[in-house]
């Protein structure tokens, strides 16, 4: 049973009294239900269906004074069910139509803030893409219980610690199924050198180029405090050793190095996140495809589509040396 329904007040006593022909409690029940509907913290499907079922049954039977009070209360509420609007309109108390959002961003926000709205795949992709740069929308989406943790990976930077762990675990379940290409050989060494020299721009550029990230990848962290979390995922994806990552945390930025708690949290994040998971989280946050192979597109070695070596290439040593044919014995 939905928590919203389970926590609703028990009105069975009022309903039982309403069956007494000497008493007419239908107006009271309708007003009470209207107040409960308007003060509900969320208008999920259970709340909407329960209110619509009861209100549409009572509206045709109550007096006009009660309807006027109910209509005034409901006017301006965007979540009034269509059946309730139609019932009030039939009695001569039409409600003002809900205001239409002026932009697609406002329409998306309305969908995200409505717990009873079903979010389809395309709508969710659009909301997540916008949530990457909209902190309020991101937190609204993170607060919806109907979106699985794996789908919330693009909003990992905005999530609270417990939710980050849930997202990370969900991503880890599939990240390990894809091959993780090795990082460039000298990437870790160059990053340590740039950090030692406190050349932040060279460090950020080398890390982004080494992982094939967009030039402005750090701007994905709208909150400056979260940029080192994003940077830690990138360091893990770059396959740095823990000691090298700690060296970066202690040398690249003085404000981070001075905070023992901050360094400890970054080291914990680095230690508890697998390389494949860090790669997938990084790609989800930045909205870029996951690279599964080093060296670009896979080229088959055999089959009709395979590239055939030319004799010139063989002479240049581009092919493995062909062993001489074994002579057949004749005696």
- Choose one word for the global shape: elongated
Number of helices in the DSSP assignment:
18
Poorly predicted segments: 1-7, 293-306, 312-331
Give helix and strand order, one letter per element, not per position.
HHHHHHHHHHHHHHHHHH
Q: N- to C-terminal separation?
A: 90 Å
Largest sheet: none
Q: What is the mean pLDDT? A: 82
**Whole-number tally of structural domains:** 3
Helix content: 40-55%
> Radius of gyration, rounded?
31 Å
Number of strands: 0
Task: Characterize this entry briefly.
This protein has 331 residues and is mainly α. The protein has 18 helices and no strands.
Q: Tags for this entry?
A:
331 residues, mainly alpha, 3 domains, elongated, disordered N terminus, disordered C terminus
Overview of this structure, please?
With 331 residues, the chain is mainly alpha-helical. It is elongated. It starts with a helix and ends in a 16-residue tail after the last helix. The N terminus and C terminus are likely disordered.
Secondary-structure blueprint of this entry?
Blueprint: H1 3-6, H2 12-18, H3 26-39, H4 45-58, H5 64-74, H6 82-90, H7 104-113, H8 121-131, H9 135-142, H10 161-175, H11 187-196, H12 200-211, H13 227-237, H14 242-251, H15 254-257, H16 260-272, H17 275-286, H18 311-315
Organism: Methylorubrum rhodesianum
Protein name: DUF2336 domain-containing protein
């Amino acid at each position: 049973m939905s928590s919203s329904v389970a926590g609703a007040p028990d009105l069975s006593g009022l309903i039982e009294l309403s069956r007494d022909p000497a008493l007419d409690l239908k107006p009271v029940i309708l007003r009470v239900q209207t107040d409960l509907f308007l003060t509900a913290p969320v208008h999920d499907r259970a709340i909407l269906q329960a209110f619509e079922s009861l209100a549409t049954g009572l509206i045709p039977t109550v007096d006009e004074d009660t309807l006027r009070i109910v209509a005034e209360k409901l006017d301006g509420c965007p979540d009034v069910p269509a059946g309730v609007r139609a019932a009030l309109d039939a009695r001569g108390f039409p409600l003002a139509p809900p205001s239409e959002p002026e932009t697609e961003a406002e329409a998306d926000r309305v969908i995200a803030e409505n717990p009873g709205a079903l979010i389809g795949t395309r709508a969710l992709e659009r909301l997540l893409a916008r949530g990457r740069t909209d902190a309020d929308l991101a937190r609204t989406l993170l607060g919806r219980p109907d979106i699985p943790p794996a789908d919330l990976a693009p909003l990992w930077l905005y999530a609270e610690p417990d939710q980050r762990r849930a997202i990370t675990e969900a991503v880890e379940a599939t990240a390990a199924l894809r091959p993780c290409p090795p990082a460039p050989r000298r990437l870790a060494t160059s990053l340590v050198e740039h950090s030692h020299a406190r050349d932040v721009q060279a460090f950020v550029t080398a890390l982004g180029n080494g992982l094939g990230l967009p030039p402005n990848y750090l701007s994905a962290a709208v909150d400056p405090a979260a940029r080192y979390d994003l940077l830690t995922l990138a360091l893990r994806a770059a396959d740095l050793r823990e000691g090298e990552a700690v060296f970066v945390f202690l040398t690249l930025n003085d404000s981070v190095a001075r905070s023992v708690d901050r360094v400890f949290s970054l080291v914990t994040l680095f230690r508890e996140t697998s390389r494949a998971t860090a790669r997938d989280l990084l790609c989800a946050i930045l909205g870029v495809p996951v690279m599964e192979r080093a060296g670009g597109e896979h080229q088959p070695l055999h089959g009709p589509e395979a590239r055939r070596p030319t004799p010139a290439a063989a002479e240049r040593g581009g092919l493995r040396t062909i062993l001489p044919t074994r002579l057949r014995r004749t005696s």
